[in-house]
Amino acid sequence: MSQENKLNQALKELYNVTGLQFSLLSNPELDTKQALEQIKHLTHAYREKYNKSGFIQELLIEELSSSDIFYRAQKLHIEFHAKRAVYIIETKNAKDSTLLETLKNLFTNLTDDFIIEFSPNNIILVKTFYSKKSKVELEQTANTIVDMLNTEAMSKVRVGYSSIIEDLSQLIIAYKEARLALDIGNLFYTNKATHCHSSLGLGRIIYHLPESLSTTFLKEILGTDPLNSIDEETLTTINIFFDNGLNIAETARKLYIHRNTLIYRIEKLQKLTGLDIRSFDDAVLIKIALMIIRHLKSR
Amino acid sequence: MASVSLKNICKVYPNGFEAVKDFNLDIEDQEFIIFVGPSGCGKSTTLRMIAGLEEISSGELKIDDKLMNDTEPKDRDIAMVFQNYALYPHMTVYDNMAFALKINKVPKAEIEKKVKEVAKILDLEPLLKRKPKALSGGQRQRVAMGRAIVRNPKVFLMDEPLSNLDAKLRVQMRLELSKLHQRLNATIIYVTHDQTEAMTLGTRIVVMKDGVVQQVDTPENLYNYPSNLFVAGFIGSPQMNFLNATVKIVDNNVSLQVGQHSFALPPAKGKKLIDGNYNGREVVLGIRPEDIYDSEVFIETSPSSVFESKIKIYELLGSEVNLHFNLEGTQITAKVDPRTTIRNGDTARFAIDMEKAHIFDKETELTITN
């Protein structure tokens, strides 16, 4: 086979692996042997990279034995023991090339970080951390992802991320953590764009309550038709009252209503539920009830 | 560049929380507008609504008279620089700036022209072949700005872009930004919680609190004529001193009684209190630290606003001295000449420049005398 045919063959293989099409230009100064070697190396590197991504994707969703993971990781030159975290990036369109290109170029540590198009709306980043300040970096990375995708790809995204894991066998746990963080965050903390599994607050408890227990609790607090018993106006009032630390004057000011109007609304709720949200204990019950309502409505 | 108009803009989250309430603003072409306010006041949310990264709950957003409420961010002809920016680590400065254009399939020659033009504006020409690791913090920041500028947008949106820099670099970058605005003649909307940044950069400043616009004005007017107690306290460092006072009007002479002390108001300010029927009512007297004098000359010429107090803290800041003391149970700060002989523990005499006094209604917290 001529050198030119060999080069074309190598480029075809590169295309099969990467999807990138190159055409051969005649250049008398080109060292064809060297070029052939370089294309082969590139193809090899990409193939390994794709194999690695496939392997990582498998680890995110399938439970494999530690020894199997260790063996396969070694074969693919992936460090088994390393501090890593999983970030799920939720977007309208995960196939948006600008978004993917931005992420790929931002996290270019080809051997240690992995970017996976996971579903039509989700991209996953598996990030390796080296420094001792990895917890700070963990949050910083989430903020950087959001700000960079906002400014560079001009895409609105939300990010859920796991805590730091110690080895590859925990990747499946990390993925579940990041997924949970995103689900709970999207449900209860809608004004935030990043959600960390280790700081989900009350949302974590409410999310895991069994439906039967939730409904029983709601009936106890709000009566027979709990999902429709509180009107929008009262709901807003309660939320703002909570946001302002149960402070009457501040809440009235923020709602642009007279103090007495606020007290009237609070007393109306008290008639309905028997609970006075000015008292801390009752406020806690209402707060939990409202979060449960939101959770049940989302189902 | 372009004008931006926000009419009755509101942002309500699903839990009922109103992050922005009835925001109205017309931003002229080439203005450098600053949104400033404490954390959670809605300034970033407003910027993100302009960017298209947050949905507008109600109201109208127009850029160059075109309604933009439902337009995708990438179709709004804007460019953004946010707090948590990062450079692409394996790319040179040139490639970092060219990246967005390459992805948008802009012809190579045009990319080169734009990047070189912007590099010249930002003094990045000698650094175009360097990678981010070989750049200083300030240079990296300039590259991040460059990435936005090469897009040649109608409007620049910046959200605390300097907040990750150290204090010295922030001052330097503030100057750079000011120069950049002059060179680009750009419309810039800039969010910060730092009032020094707001005062030094903005052609106009929007002060926000709890999602509500408190005042929109030039830096000078905000400082000299704050519209309410919040703006008066937020703008200025050290902040304005506030004293509860009772208005006394006798034969058209108006004075403010603060505990045992009585401070006479100049006729023009006094007239506003007479017209507003404030006799006997409580108000808040606001005095900027630099309007309290310790010099004998000033004290002699202002006998109706003199008081005495024991100095609790003497702070030498180099070009000025801050003296902290109590007046009728309220802590007061006076900014005086560094050559003052007053020290900790001294009992000193001061006089207030009542021409510069600000009087606020205690209930509405609105200014009465401006």
TrEMBL record, chain B:
Native organism: Anaerosacchariphilus polymeriproducens
Gene3D superfamilies xrefs: 2.40.50.100, Nucleic acid-binding proteins (2.40.50.140), P-loop containing nucleotide triphosphate hydrolases (3.40.50.300)
Ranges of residues in domain ABC transporter: 4-235
Biological process, per Gene Ontology: carbohydrate transport
Source taxon at top rank: Bacteria
PANTHER family named among the record's database cross-references: MALTODEXTRIN IMPORT ATP-BINDING PROTEIN MSMX, OSMOPROTECTIVE COMPOUNDS UPTAKE ATP-BINDING PROTEIN GGTA
Keyword hit for Thylakoid: no
GO molecular function, one term: ABC-type transporter activity
Identification of the protein by name: sn-glycerol-3-phosphate ABC transporter ATP-binding protein UgpC
UniProt cross-references to Pfam families, sorted A to Z: ABC_tran (PF00005), OB_MalK (PF17912), TOBE (PF03459)
InterPro entries with a match to the protein in the record: AAA+_ATPase (IPR003593), ABC_transporter-like_ATP-bd (IPR003439), ABC_transporter-like_CS (IPR017871), ABC_transpr_MalK-like (IPR015855), ABC_transpr_MalK/UgpC-like (IPR047641), Mo/tungstate-bd_C_term_dom (IPR008995), NA-bd_OB-fold (IPR012340), OB_MalK-like (IPR040582)
Coiled coil: none
Keywords: ATP-binding, Nucleotide-binding, Transport
GO CC, alphabetical: ATP-binding cassette (ABC) transporter complex, substrate-binding subunit-containing
